[in-house]
Write a structure and sequence with these properties.
Oligomer: heteropentamer
Strand content of chain D: under 5%
Number of strands of chain B: 0
Number of helices of chain D: 28
Structural class of chain D: mainly alpha
Number of helices of chain B: 6
Strand order of the largest sheet of chain D: 1-2
Shape of chain D: globular
Radius of gyration of chain B: 20 Å
Order of helices and strands of chain B: HHHHHH
Shape of chain B: globular
Number of strands of chain D: 2
Helix content of chain D: over 70%
Structural class of chain B: mainly alpha
Distance between the termini of chain B: 60 Å
Largest sheet of chain D: 2 strands, antiparallel
Order of helices and strands of chain D: HHEEHHHHHHHHHHHHHHHHHHHHHHHHHH
Distance between the termini of chain D: 93 Å
Chains: A mainly alpha (102), B mainly alpha (167), C mainly alpha (501), D mainly alpha (630), E mainly alpha (495)
Helix content of chain B: over 70%
Chain lengths: 102, 167, 501, 630, 495
């Protein structure tokens, strides 16, 4: 069967891709998408651990549920902010929203 | 046997689509890729025999989140005309470097660690009952807090996004 | 000890009074200038009285620490045990002497500050906070409060110089404050290390001294930590090459601040080296003293030589302060009874002498608005009192017998010869140079034909005359009759660990 | 009384305080206070002398001291010791001080700061007396410095004159350099013997507490002090300039008393010098060089007071030579006599200056004989005494010196000292001839030159008498008659008293020396004419210039101070500004600020950069921790 | 066991929050400052409700949440902070926003989140509480909707916040994998029991967690959001950020590190020490360069975080006693720091309401136009710099002293040196206020009685803690003790 490591490696790669997205993308929405990837990797981790390491106590799964929920809420909030910014500046590029620095 | 093959196919799919999310040139494509990769992760949950999470994944992500994102794309007039501006910033290479380093670390961690209690065998099914039990009994407190949190997010989203005189 | 307890409250009063004065002024409307002045004058007078009392009441042949008073402050919490931090006051011979110095200089400074017209109230608030800090440092027998008051004495200088100063005041103020506080960082680190190493959960100084003596602090540890204290305090004591705040700071500081600063504050540094360095870390002190001696000697010569060609009164005094504090360090470094007593005497002597000098410079500058020697000449014609006072101060500076300078320097020389003859010789040479630069200034400024530009300079005002007289008297007192001073020092000095006879 | 000799110093000290405080407001600005004080001291001296002699030599020296301070084992006593040498010094000081105080009343009339002048005079007398009374070197040093201070104040009395100020400064600083040596020497002695008390030091040294070489070094340091005060080459430069002070001051301080403090010190510590290897030889050499050098310089001086000043220096040289020969009596005796006739000469010069309304250049004087007979007469006596004419005071003391040198220092020194005394005779006579004989060089001045009043001439007469008879003190009979144990040599001695007996050969020789010098001068300046002298000068212009410019000592020192000392000071100041302050202190501050400036550019304001920082941070922390070894 | 009475104060807070929301919905044109006072009242009630818990036996909720001295301490702190901030905002918000209900209710909710962070002893609960606080802050920072700086700030904050919480979560997941538990005891036992072949996972997990919480308390290099967020946020929220959010972060860190990770101290102490060093140095060096007050405060507070991390490092390096003393002293310093910061912002808000200028140069001549505010600002800045009479002197000295352990003297030394550097830029502010005369046309003014009074009270607090910290110190001692009696069970130190 598929061993635990596979899932961990997969989530690791997924997470790193998400990180890359956050680091590389200019558009706020894209950054958010990348964050979503990272969160997915996280919940995948949790579930995998839960299932493989402590069956019965489902802690990890509950964690995953919460992570997904928080992620959703976060996206909602973040997008609201992005839209607000876009209204004021008509751009959603994070590196253009850099009037405050140094 | 077949499950393994399938798993590998899906794994590759997930990674590929995820790569698509962070690499594709137009925003809309990224969004599409995101949906796919989320779905792929959902499939992974099925492999892990926790249908509940898979369900949640499909509903919340596949549904709400992606819709939200697409909506946001529309509102911020992204990709509609596919504004011909680079979607990837100047520091991408450094990002790639760091991300690779991180990936190496995490993969190494995943592989090199002897996970305590790892039976090396197949995942054991976790019943909805157990989950419900844990969620509402033991983890009642976080659950309540979570409720407040969602309320906050809800209020906040409104407060921030609401039209006002002045804009 | 009952009377000692009662006398302890005298110390407490001397400590609290300036703070109360500052508080009262804080509440006073800024428009009430005269009120502020009179209040300060009265407080200054009372403090002078208390200081004199403390000095006289200190029993030369009693135990070393007298007038002790201990109020438990913070204890039995966190890492702090019994007497963890207590408001522990008391004086030994040295601090008694320096208390007297503070009283004299502070009173003189208050009178001189009478002339200030700009933001009078604010000035006196800061001034009294400064004074409180000085008293506190001399009285404190608890490391926490020692550092507390030490910092308290340093900080107000920034505003005092920055607001009421003259030449390049912002630069001078900033540099002075930063260098002094930078020094106290060293002290801070030292405190952490010592209290941790002693592991007694207390900041009580006598306890820590005992720990240092009894070897609870290992020799190696002492050798490592002593430089932190020595350099940290050394900055304030004008230890070469960390002295550069002194010329610039004095150049920018207003008169009474220069007086208090050069007169008293610089002594805090040397006092700190005794209190923290020698008394807590005797072995470290013994190990590092030669280095301190070399630096002190360099400072003494360097300051004197640099003063030879300065053209600004205050620069001359700034450098001569460096030179004289160099003597103090030499005296301490000898680690023998005579040298260390000499150092203490020199603290007093230099205190009153330099305070007088700055008073006089101020009196001139306020009228002439220049401090360039070459602008003057024949001033004695129009300002006889001023010149007389200055000559007295200058001769004391040059170590002329009959004035305090000689009394102090003589002991230092003797002490130095006992241990390091060569350096003693160099120190004496520096004294000769001091005579040279002082006389050069006399010749250029006071004597010769009167430069008509200064025909209508006014002599010392009565108030200035009074405070000048006060300082001159204290100089003569120590110069002509040593024993009241040396007797009070003897026991204390002999009680210092590592001080040989 | 002798054990209360400190009152001698106390009285004028009190007078000083009183005059400083009230002098300005007293009638006549309180000069009478000064005179009375001086008289009182003079009288007191005789009381002291009487009781001293009354005690008998068993009781000598008379001691009296008090506890001063004690720090642990470091104990100090202050006190007085009266012995023969002290008595001699007291005699000189009190007498001359009295005369000078009186003379000053006339001389300083109408001068600025009249009261202050007298006040400082009292301070000087007090400290000078304390100096000779001190039983320990510390007290001696203290008095020594105060003496220097009062000399400084008096030289600079006319401080409106730049030259006076400079002279005062020069005097103070130059002697101060010597004093550094003195203080070092004193402390070295203390370090070796653990006491400042002179007698204890003697005992300790006899007991061999101090090694030969160490003692030698120490004594050399002390000798520096003595040379500084007594203006021995190369410290002599300040004394001629000191003539800027009022002339009575020159008489008292720079002829009779203060300048001989060095001689006194050497005499006082002679036992130590003796036991310090070649120290005595050094003293002789110093004295000899000084005597010859300044004698020569005196040839070419034209200012009365300058000539006298150099003659003083040269006579001090004589005293050093005598002491160097190991003979306290000879040295002290010359000190004794010299005090009187040199004071006389200076006061005479003062009288001339007043009489001619402030002219002291020989070139402008001459022929004063008729105008001011008393002054001239007394001045002649003084000159002859100085030149060493039989049987005036100078003759006997110089005779003693020649005798001593002959006995202890061999032919060469004897020869040179003889040359020196010829010089003495020469310049003294030159001075007298050019000032008083011949025709006035400047009629304008001569026309309104008057003899000075009694207040000034009486002291001259008194001193003249002393200059005649003081020498006789050398005779056993005279001393005996006065209640002394005998002649000077039997009163003041180091190891064993020596009865004086005239050595006619030596007497004749020294008379010959006098005649040689005196007649050379007389011939050269006959009738106050200068042609021969000028011819002489033109015959050897270089030499003449050399003498006139005092062997360029002042120029040399000036260069030394300007170039070396001040130059070094400039270097140090520069170093302090630029290296220590601007680079070290401000530099480090600037560096800190610059670090912040660089760092702040990482804060680009761009989210991706921030995220990069976070991610990189995590990776770094992880890897580092892994590397460090979890 | 599920004892719902343990969190009555928080119920009150949330109830108040909802009530305020409702109130504004009901009466849209209600005077906004009334809402402020209502919030203050709610906070006061919350505070009062918290008092009975003092000395109350520790209560435990399913092993997830814990109400003990520690929780009580942060409860009082949180309620106090919300109270003060609400009053700051009353005048400030006028004319800057149309609605204020969300603002005030979010203050209360955020405060609640802070308390829960302090109370939670289980990773999931801790995470959710943390997000509760973060979400409120995201919104509050961006609350000035028409102010582009405010938008920008909140965007940066939320994006980076999400990013870092993803990191945190991944770390937690790894830790969960290693120990098979998410409760602190569980983690502690797991870490104590684990074999060497799980080092990598443990380290990676802990480091990711460090990054997550480090972001929360803005420790370099995770600090970069802070200056921007501080500058963009409404002034009172800047105060809230620099007090509540930091305090909460440290509450969580203390619980987590003393409760769970202390077992594995050897794995993370070096990293924390390094973090502390970098943080304090970067914060102070950067502060020197600032011209904007809010940014200056941001950087200086980053420096302060560096100092506080020293204490955390000490927990890792020292023995049990040192660990406890260090945490107690840290709590003391947090109290002092919070007081000083609030005092500073009371004065700044008063000044800003008057001048609308948040640059350093804007303070020019304040000593003459408003000496009292100048005094308060001076006091709080000097308190940051650790100068006598003010809280910072005593608390900082005691904290460093408590943190001095054999391996760590260098760090303490560095901290001392840093607080010296910090004096420089505080003096720059002083210079503006005292050395210069006010610009033309800047007349004397007096702050509103409300802000003036607050400033005065807070100043007194600063002085009290500075001069006589004994009572507060005893309280923090109790809190710290509670912290450790909980984790004492698993305090088996790693070799």
């Amino acid at each position: 069967m598929v061993p635990l490591e596979n899932y961990l490696v997969l989530s690791g790669i997924l997470f790193s891709l998400g990180v890359y997205g956050v680091l590389a993308r200019r558009n706020a929405v894209l950054v958010l998408m990348s964050v979503e990837l990272m969160l997915n990797a996280v919940s995948l981790n949790f579930v995998a651990f839960a299932v493989y390491l402590d069956p019965g106590r489902a802690t990890g799964i509950v964690f995953a549920v919460f992570v997904i929920a928080v992620a959703a809420a976060e996206v909602g909030l973040a997008l609201a902010i992005v839209i607000r910014l876009f209204r004021n500046r008509s751009t959603a590029n994070v590196d253009e929203a850099a009037t405050m620095r140094w | 046997m077949t499950t393994e093959v399938l798993w590998w196919i899906f794994a590759v799919g997930v990674v590929g689509t995820a790569a698509g999310v962070v690499l594709s040139r137009t925003v809309v494509h990224s969004a599409i890729f995101l949906i796919l990769s989320l779905a792929g992760v959902g499939a992974m949950y099925l492999f892990l025999t926790v249908e509940f999470i898979a369900l949640v994944q499909f509903l919340i992500y596949g549904g709400a989140v992606t819709v939200l994102i697409l909506l946001a794309l529309m509102l911020t007039r992204m990709g509609v005309a596919g504004r011909p501006e680079p979607v990837t910033g100047a520091q991408a290479p450094f990002g790639a470097l760091v991300a690779l380093a991180l990936m190496a670390t995490l993969v190494a961690v995943a592989v090199a660690t002897a996970w305590p209690g790892d039976l090396g065998g197949s995942p054991e099914a976790v019943s909805i009952e157990q989950i419900g039990e844990a969620l509402f009994e033991h983890y009642g407190a976080p659950f309540i807090i979570m409720a407040v949190l969602l309320l906050v997010a809800f209020i906040g989203a409104i407060a921030i996004a609401r039209q006002e005189d002045g804009d | 000890m009952g009377s000692g307890e009662a006398q302890g409250y005298v110390l407490l009063t001397a400590l609290a009074l300036p703070l109360l004065a500052a508080g009262a002024l804080l509440l006073m409307p800024g428009s009430q200038r005269m009120a502020a002045r009179y209040l300060s004058a009265v407080v200054g007078a009372i403090l002078l009285g208390l200081s004199v009392y403390v000095f006289l009441a200190y029993q030369a042949n009693g135990e070393v620490l007298q007038m002790q008073l201990r109020w438990p402050w913070i204890e039995h919490v966190g890492f702090l045990g019994e007497n963890g931090i207590s408001l522990h006051l008391g004086v030994d011979g040295i601090s008694a002497l320096l208390t007297l110095l503070t009283g004299v200089v502070a009173f003189a400074g208050t009178l001189v500050a009478w002339k200030i017209e700009y933001r009078v109230k604010d000035f006196f608030i800061l001034f009294w906070i400064l004074i409180a800090g000085v008293y506190g440092t001399f009285f404190a027998l608890d490391l926490f409060f020692f550092f507390f008051f030490y910092e308290l004495a340093v900080v107000p200088l920034y505003l005092l110089i920055g607001i009421w100063g003259s030449t390049r005041k912002e630069y001078g103020a900033m540099k002075l404050t930063l260098m002094l506080v930078g020094g106290s960082v060293g002290i801070w680190i030292g405190i952490f290390a010592v209290v941790h190493e002693a592991g007694l959960g207390t900041f009580d100084l006598p306890t820590l001294w005992e720990a240092g003596r009894s070897g609870a602090l290992s020799a190696d540890f002492q050798k490592v930590i002593f430089p932190f204290f020595a350099v940290g305090c050394g900055v304030l004591a004008g230890l070469w090459p960390l002295h550069t705040w002194s010329p610039d700071g004095h150049m920018s500081a207003p008169t009474s601040v220069s007086m208090v600063h050069a007169g008293v504050l610089m002594k805090l540094g040397a006092f700190g080296i005794i209190r923290l360095g020698i008394q807590i870390l005797p072995e470290g002190a013994a190990f590092w003293m030669p280095a301190l001696l070399v630096l002190g000697t360099i400072g003494a010569l360097y300051g004197a030589i640099a003063a030879l060609t300065q053209r600004d009164f205050k620069l001359i005094s700034g450098y001569s302060s460096v030179s004289h504090m160099g003597y103090v360090l030499i005296g301490l470094a000898t680690l023998n009874e005579v040298g260390v007593s000499g150092a203490s005497l020199q603290m007093f002597s230099h205190g009153v002498m330099t305070a007088l000098v700055f008073l006089l410079i101020g009196a001139l500058y306020d009228q002439a608005h220049t401090r360039d020697l070459r602008d003057f000449g024949g001033v004695a014609k129009v300002m006889p009192l001023w010149v007389v006072a200055y000559v007295v101060a200058g001769l004391a500076n040059a170590g002329l017998p009959g004035l305090s300078g000689f009394t102090a320097e003589f002991h230092i020389f003797v002490g130095a010869f006992r241990t390091y003859p060569v350096f003693g010789g160099l120190a004496i040479l520096a004294a000769a140079i001091a005579a040279a630069y002082m006389l050069r200034m006399f010749a250029v400024v006071f004597f010769g034909p009167l430069n008509p530009r200064w025909r209508d300079l006014k002599d010392l005002s009565p108030i200035e005359a009074v405070s000048a007289a006060l300082l001159v008297v204290s100089m003569l007192a120590m110069g002509l009759w040593w024993s009241p001073f040396t007797d009070r020092l003897a026991n204390t000095v002999l009680s210092l660990p590592g001080v040989t006879s | 009384m002798a054990e209360h000799a400190w009152m001698l110093a106390a009285v004028p000290a009190f007078a000083f305080v009183a005059l400083t405080a009230t002098g300005r407001h007293l009638p006549r600005q309180g000069d009478f206070v000064a005179v009375l004080t001086a008289a009182a001291v003079f009288a007191l001296f005789f009381a002291v002398l009487a009781s001293f002699l009354g005690l008998g030599d068993a009781a000598w020296p008379v001691l009296n001291s008090i506890e001063w301070t004690a720090i642990g084992s470091f104990e100090l006593r202050m006190g007085i010791a009266v012995d023969q040498i002290t008595i001699v010094m007291l005699a000189v000081i009190t007498t001359v001080a009295f005369m000078v105080n009186v003379f000053s009343v006339g001389y300083m009339k109408g001068e600025p700061r009249y009261w202050w002048y007298f006040a400082v005079l009292q301070l000087f007398v007090a400290s000078m007396l304390m100096l000779v009374l001190a039983d320990n070197l510390l007290l001696l040093y203290i008095a020594w410095e105060v003496v220097g201070l009062s000399s400084f104040l008096l030289i600079g009395h006319y401080w409106e004159r730049r030259s006076a100020v400079e002279a005062a400064k020069k005097a103070f600083v130059t002697t101060r350099v010597g004093d550094v040596g003195l203080l070092i020497g004193i402390i070295l002695l203390w370090d070796a013997t653990g006491t400042f008390n002179i007698l204890d030091i003697f005992h300790a040294v006899e007991a061999g507490a101090v090694g030969e070489t160490r003692l030698f070094v120490t004594m050399m340091f002390i000798l520096l002090g003595a040379m500084g005060k007594s203006a021995q080459v190369p410290f002599h430069v300040w004394l001629p300039d000191a003539m800027e002070g009022p002339t009575p001051v020159s008489a008292l301080i720079h002829a009779a008393t203060m300048v001989v403090a060095g001689v006194y010190l050497v005499a006082r510590l002679l036992p130590l010098f003796e036991s310090a290897g070649g120290a005595l030889m050094v003293i002789t050499i110093v004295g000899l060089v000084t005597a010859l050098f300044s004698g020569a310089v005196a040839f070419a001086q034209t200012d009365i007071k300058k000539v006298l000043a150099y003659s003083t220096v040269s006579q001090l040289g004589f005293m050093f030579v005598a002491l160097g020969a190991g003979l306290v009596s000879a040295g002290m005796f010359h000190l004794f006599t010299h005090a009187f006739f040199k004071a006389l000469l200076f006061l005479g010069a003062g009288s001339v200056i007043i009489g001619t309304h402030h002219h002291q250049e020989m070139g402008q004087l001459g022929g004063l004989w008729r105008k001011m007979p008393v002054t001239a007469a007394t001045f002649l006596i003084g000159s002859l005494a100085l030149a060493g004419l039989f049987p005036l005071a100078g003759f006997w003391s110089k005779d003693e010196i020649l005798h001593a040198v002959d006995a202890h220092r061999g032919a060469l020194v004897f020869l040179l000292i003889s040359v020196a005394s010829i010089m003495t005779a020469f310049y003294t006579m030159r001075l007298f001839v050019r000032t008083f004989l011949g025709k006035p060089q400047d009629e304008a001045i001569a026309s309104h030159t008057r003899e000075t009043g009694a207040i000034m001439t009486l002291p001259l007469v008194f001193l003249a008498i002393l200059s005649v008879i003081a020498g006789l003190a050398v005779f056993h009979e005279v001393g005996d008659a006065l209640g002394f144990p005998g002649g000077f040599g039997e009163f003041v001695y180091l190891h064993h008293p020596e009865v004086f007996h005239v050595d006619w050969g030596l007497a004749g020789f020294s008379t010959a020396l006098f005649v040689l010098g005196a007649f050379a001068a007389g011939w050269l300046y006959r009738g106050g004419r200068l042609d021969r002298a000028t011819a002489l000068a033109e015959w050897q212009p270089r030499l003449y210039e050399l003498l006139r410019r005092k062997f360029y000592f002042d120029e040399l020192y000036q260069a030394l101070i300007d170039r070396v000392v001040l130059g070094f000071s400039y270097v140090v100041s520069w170093f302090d500004r630029f290296a220590v302050n601007d680079t070290g202190v401000d530099g480090s501050a600037a560096m800190t600020g610059y670090a912040g400036f660089l760092l702040k550019h990482l804060q680009t304001g761009r989210v991706p950069n921030y995220a990069l920082a976070i991610a990189a941070g995590v990776v770094a922390l992880t890897l580092i921790t892994l590397a460090v070894g979890g | 066991m599920r004892d719902f009475t343990l969190f009555i104060p928080e119920y009150i807070a949330v109830a108040a929050a909802v009530a305020i929301l409702a109130a504004e919905l009901a009466w849209p044109h209600i005077r906004k400052d009334l809402l402020a006072y209502a919030t203050a009242a709610g906070a006061a009630a919350w505070l009062i409700a918290a008092l009975p818990y003092i000395g109350h036996t520790a209560g435990d909720f399913e092993g997830l949440l814990h109400t003990d001295g520690f929780t009580t301490y942060f409860r009082i702190l949180a309620a106090g902070i919300v109270f003060v901030i609400a009053l700051f905002s009353a005048q400030y918000l006028r004319g800057r926003t149309n609605t204020a209900g969300e603002y005030y209710s979010l203050l209360l909710v955020g405060g609640t989140g802070m308390v829960l962070m302090a109370a939670s002893r289980e990773l999931l609960t801790a995470y959710i509480s943390l997000e509760l606080l973060s979400f409120s802050l995201y919104i509050l920072v961006g609350y000035l909707k028409r102010d582009t700086l405010s938008n920008e700030a909140s965007l940066k904050y939320i994006l980076l916040g999400a990013f870092s919480s993803a990191m945190l979560l991944y770390g937690i997941s790894l830790l969960y994998g290693v120990t098979g538990s998410t409760t602190y005891e569980g983690v502690a036992q797991g870490l104590a029991a684990r074999g060497g072949d799980t080092d990598w996972a443990a380290i990676a997990g802990i480091m990711l967690i460090v990054a997550g919480v480090g972001f929360k308390v803005s420790a370099a290099p995770f600090h970069m959001w802070a200056p921007d967020a501080y500058q963009g946020a409404p002034l009172p929220i800047t105060a809230f950020l620099s007090t509540a959010s930091k305090a909460a972060g440290f509450a969580l860190i203390l619980r987590l590190f003393t409760g769970a990770l202390v077992v594995d101290a050897i794995e993370w102490r070096a990293a924390i020490a390094a973090l502390a060093a970098i943080t304090m140095t970067a914060g102070n060096l950067l502060a020197i360069q600032q011209t904007n007050l809010k940014r200056l405060v941001a950087y200086s507070s980053i420096g302060q975080v560096g100092y506080m991390l020293v204490a955390i490092a000490a927990i890792g390096y020292g023995d049990a006693a040192t660990a406890e003393n260090a945490s107690s002293a840290l709590l003391l310093h947090i109290a002092g720091y919070t007081l000083s910061t609030l005092a500073l912002f009371a004065a700044l808000t008063a000044h800003y309401n008057r001048t609308g200028d948040d640059s350093i140069a804007g303070l020019r001549g304040l000593a003459q136009t408003q000496p009292f505010l100048a005094l308060v600002i001076t006091a709080s800045l000097f308190s940051f710099a650790g100068l006598p009479f003010f809280a910072g002197f005593a608390t900082k000295l005691l904290m460093f002293q408590a943190s001095t352990t054999d391996g760590l003297l260098w760090l303490v030394g560095l901290a001392a040196a840093n607080s010296f550097v910090s004096l420089y830029y505080y003096l720059m502010v002083m210079r503006q206020m005292y050395l210069y005369d006010p610009p033309e046309g800047r007349a004397r003014f007096r702050p509103t009685p409300l802000l003036g009074g607050l400033a005065g009270l807070l100043l007194l607090g600063v002085l009290f803690v500075g001069i006589y910290p004994q009572p507060v110190f005893e309280a923090t001692d109790g809190a710290a003790a509670a912290l450790f009696e909980v984790s004492a069970a698993v305090l088996i130190r790693a070799p």
